[in-house]
Amino acid sequence: MSSNASAVPTEIAKHLQEGDLDAVEDAWMARMEKAPADLDFFSSVSAAVTKADTQETAAILLQMLDDELKEKELWPIRIELLRREGRVMHPTA
Known about the structure:
The protein is built from five helices and no strands. By secondary structure, the protein is mainly alpha-helical.
């Protein structure tokens, strides 16, 4: 499944329409705790955040996920995250 194949969850789309980035971050953190390997979710939300706000905001969220994956030593998932989202996380690289 490609990184943008998953639809943005309705709850996230609603928060973005309302400009409620704190609620988006809360949902991101909750998913990160429960399912840090759900890269389809994180990629779709990252793309939606980039479209609704800025790439910088998406990069911050992705960096939090990257830190979590490093802490939990989920190396294969981290490699896949970097493969999918490296350009968002490190736009000047």
